[in-house]
């Protein structure tokens, strides 16, 4: 099987010749630059450049040696927009190791902090010396009432997640953006056999948090529901416009479109199922239905945490693929998930717990966990291997190697 055929088999709930594997197809399946450089040093890899694909989370673009060594089957289409070395600035990661940051993101050293500014000079994020990623510092609607959401795009650009774009979306305002996507995807599919994913985002719950801050938005969802519904309706219109532009370029050829909204905590959902069904679900269903009506792409949905109580609702809303499958959260045990939802959704993740096993286990413990989880998830297809969320700073490189060697032995 080709890499793309392997992913397609999983997406259609068929067993492939081996378990399909991902790293970096979207910004929650990747590897932090710090962990990436440690791995390169461990393996004696000296060539190449560590390009910071996602400056907020400090994620690196997996290079060809990585994709080949660890038998990765799917990639992010956005990486094809990162080839121009003139658009990258040499930079040191917090541990002093060399990396390259995107020139289109305005980052300045102020005192001991690295500070991120948007195009209008508004501070949107900051990385202090004790952190290894950027945190949001500006919430444009916090404390404001009776907001006119016709300026929503401007407000979103004043948040770090709304401003810091990946290599593709930095070009999103160009009129020929759909044609650029089409050309790059055609080149990727002609020159390689990778499956491809492209990120839409399409956040509802998270965008409210970015605009108001989490605590205020949660209160608004209870006491200012009419106003929240106005915001969510305008977000839906905005997301539908975005989806339409993307599909006009690659709707007939992209394998997976990525959406996300972190709805879970370690122990339960962040909001009740009733509130989710009232405010978020109807708009997700319209958005995902539009994708299904206008393309052959599968809908990939990312939500961390204990979300087993709403997985059925997500499937009903049109979700085809669930990520990161946080198996260490309450109610997210692999056997339970596979038994209850395995026929209706693809599990893209859940291969090994990153909070404990991958971070602090031995290589043998990592291997055992990978083999056990794969044995559960891979039966009858519907599974793409990925660790639970990104490989973060501090994960021993020997554990990373053990993880991939285990899954690729199957």
Briefly, what is this?
By secondary structure, the protein is α/β, with parallel strands linked by helices. It is built from 15 helices and 16 strands. Strand 9 (123-127) and strand 10 form a beta hairpin.
CATH structural class: Alpha Beta
Average pLDDT, rounded to a whole number, is: 97
> How far is the N terminus from the C terminus?
15 Å
Structural class: alpha/beta
Whole-number count of domains? 1
Counting DSSP H or I runs of 4 or more residues, the number of helices is: 15
Radius of gyration: 20 Å
Number of strands: 16
CATH architecture classification:
Alpha-Beta Barrel
**Sheet of most strands:** 7 strands, parallel
Q: In terms of per-residue confidence, which ranges show pLDDT below 50 for 5 or more consecutive residues?
A: none
Strand content: 15-25%
- Looking at the structure, what is the overall shape? globular
Structural write-up:
With 410 residues, the chain is α/β, with parallel strands linked by helices. The chain has one domain: Alpha-Beta Barrel (TIM Barrel), CATH 3.20.20.210. The chain contains 15 helices and 16 strands. The strands form 4 sheets. A 7-stranded parallel β-sheet has the order 4-11-12-13-14-15-16. A 4-stranded antiparallel β-sheet has the order 7-8-9-10. The chain has a 3-stranded antiparallel β-sheet with strand order 1-3-2. A hairpin with a 5-residue loop joins strand 5 and strand 6. It is globular, with a radius of gyration of 20 Å. The model has no long low-confidence stretch (mean pLDDT 97).
């Amino acid at each position: 099987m080709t890499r793309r055929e392997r992913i397609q088999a999983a997406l259609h709930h068929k067993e492939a010749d081996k378990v399909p594997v991902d790293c970096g197809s979207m910004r929650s399946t990747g590897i932090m630059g710090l962990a990436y450089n440690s791995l390169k040093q461990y393996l004696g890899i000296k060539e190449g450049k560590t390009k910071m694909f996602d400056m907020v989370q400090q994620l690196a673009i997996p290079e060809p040696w990585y994709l080949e060594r660890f038998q990765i089957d799917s990639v992010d289409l956005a990486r094809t927009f990162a080839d121009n070395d003139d658009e990258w600035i040499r930079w040191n990661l917090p541990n002093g190791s060399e990396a390259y940051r995107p020139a289109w993101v305005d980052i300045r050293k102020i005192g001991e902090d690295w500070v991120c500014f948007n195009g209008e000079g508004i501070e949107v994020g900051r990385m202090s010396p004790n952190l290894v990623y950027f945190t949001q510092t500006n919430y444009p609607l916090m404390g404001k009432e009776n907001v006119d959401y016709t300026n929503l795009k401007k407000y979103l650009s004043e948040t770090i997640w709304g401003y810091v774009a990946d290599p593709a979306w930095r070009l999103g305002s160009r009129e020929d953006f759909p044609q650029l996507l089409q050309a790059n995807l055609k080149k990727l599919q002609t020159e390689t056999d990778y499956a491809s994913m492209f990120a839409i985002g399409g956040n509802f719950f998270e965008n409210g948090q970015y605009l108001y801050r989490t605590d205020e938005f949660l209160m608004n969802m209870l006491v200012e529901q009419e106003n929240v519904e106005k915001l969510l309706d305008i977000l839906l219109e905005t997301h539908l416009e975005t989806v339409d532009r993307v599909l006009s370029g690659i709707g007939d050829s992209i394998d997976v479109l990525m959406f996300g909204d972190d709805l879970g905590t370690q122990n339960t959902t962040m909001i009740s199922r009733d509130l989710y069904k009232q405010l978020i679900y109807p708009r997700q269903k319209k958005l995902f239905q539009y994708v299904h009506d206008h393309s052959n792409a599968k809908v990939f949905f990312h939500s961390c945490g204990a979300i087993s109580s709403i997985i059925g609702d997500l499937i009903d809303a049109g979700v085809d693929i669930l990520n990161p499958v946080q198996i260490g959260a309450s109610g997210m045990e692999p056997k339970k998930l596979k038994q209850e939802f395995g026929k209706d959704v693809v599990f893209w993740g859940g291969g090994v717990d990153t909070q404990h096993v991958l971070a602090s286990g031995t290589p043998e413990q990592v291997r055992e966990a990978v083999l056990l989880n794969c044995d559960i998830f891979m039966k009858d297809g519907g599974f793409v291997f990925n660790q639970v969320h990104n490989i973060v700073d501090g994960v021993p490189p020997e554990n990373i190697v053990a993880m991939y060697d285990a899954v690729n032995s199957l």
